[in-house]
């Protein structure tokens, strides 16, 4: 009976070569093919680790075409190791399509865990983050980036982003203007490398801090941003009541409630129910 090969999803170091795991070394030495985001980069890495491998380029522009061939190879019995330039494949990196296709073809997918920039940054940031949202890379264009951030602005979770050095200044500017300058951000840069730095400060001060030393803008970034403060239910009720008190003097209940909801950002149903209560209470006093 013919046996399919295995797809190994192998994490590689994000900087320091010492972070390669023993298991990753064993898999990379024994596998038939290594599917790599950049074969030259991964070739240099494996050469430095003393490993010879047969490479296949698998990146965002050819993943489905090459991935289909790799699935056929695995169905024929070959073992494939999937790696990216650094860290864990399929986490803001190519590989997701190949992994899904392997599952669909009944091929066993085996994760070989190791370095991940997002987990590395969170562990050393000193941020209390029992709940966090990993967004990955924000859109490159400022308008699209601000639109994406606006959708995240009210979430109470710590927000984690990746950013490239040539966009870091524009990114922190948009973060401060969209989320507010008082939230704290941790800028984790060049993790596990020679010039690694981890620095926390209010978002409103991030641009000046980066511009104070051009070296601070170099390298790949992980940005960890404080979540939105928990809404105070009493404060929300006071804001809604104050808005309705003015609007009900001039408008019918339904219109007053709709406008109050827009002004406060609260739900229309809550505004309408409170407006009815306030109208009835006012009528009772007349």
TrEMBL record:
Tetrapyrrole methylase domain ranges (all copies): 6-206
Compartment(s): Cytoplasm
Keywords: Cytoplasm, Methyltransferase, rRNA processing, S-adenosyl-L-methionine, Transferase
Predominant cellular place of this UniProt entry's protein: cytoplasm
Gene3D superfamilies for this protein: Cobalt-precorrin-4 Transmethylase, Domain 1, Methyltransferase, Cobalt-precorrin-4 Transmethylase, Domain 2
Entry's family note: Belongs to the methyltransferase superfamily. RsmI family.
Name of this chain's protein: Ribosomal RNA small subunit methyltransferase I
Species whose genome carries this gene: Sulfuriferula plumbiphila
Lineage, uppermost ranks: Bacteria, Pseudomonadati, Pseudomonadota, Betaproteobacteria, Nitrosomonadales
């Amino acid at each position: 009976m013919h046996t399919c090969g295995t797809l190994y999803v192998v994490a590689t170091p994000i900087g320091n070569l010492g972070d390669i795991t023993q298991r990753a070394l064993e898999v990379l030495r024994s596998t038939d093919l290594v599917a790599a985001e950049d074969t030259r980069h991964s070739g240099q890495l494996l050469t430095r680790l003393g490993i010879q491998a047969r490479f296949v380029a698998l990146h965002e522009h050819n993943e489905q075409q090459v991935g289909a061939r790799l699935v056929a190879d695995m169905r024929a019995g070959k073992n494939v190791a999937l790696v990216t330039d650094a860290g864990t494949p399929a986490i803001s990196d190519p590989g997701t399509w190949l992994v899904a296709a392997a599952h669909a073809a009944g091929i066993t997918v085996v994760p070989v865990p190791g370095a991940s920039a997002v987990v590395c940054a969170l562990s050393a940031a000193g941020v209390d983050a029992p709940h966090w949202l990993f967004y990955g890379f924000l859109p490159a264009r400022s308008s699209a980036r601000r639109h994406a951030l606006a959708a995240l602005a009210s979430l109470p979770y710590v927000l984690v982003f990746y950013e490239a050095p040539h966009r870091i200044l524009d990114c922190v500017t948009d973060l401060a203007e969209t989320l507010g300058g008082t939230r704290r951000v941790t800028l984790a840069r060049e993790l596990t490398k020679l010039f690694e730095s981890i620095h926390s400060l209010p978002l409103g001060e991030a641009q000046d801090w980066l511009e104070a030393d051009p070296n601070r803008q170099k390298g790949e970034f992980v940005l960890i941003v404080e979540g939105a403060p928990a809404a105070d239910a009493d404060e929300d009720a006071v804001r809604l009541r104050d808005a309705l008190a003015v609007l009900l003097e001039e408008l019918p209940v339904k219109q007053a409630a709709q406008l109050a909801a827009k002004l406060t950002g609260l739900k229309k149903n809550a505004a309408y129910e409170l407006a009815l209560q306030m109208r009835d209470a006012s009528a009772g006093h007349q």
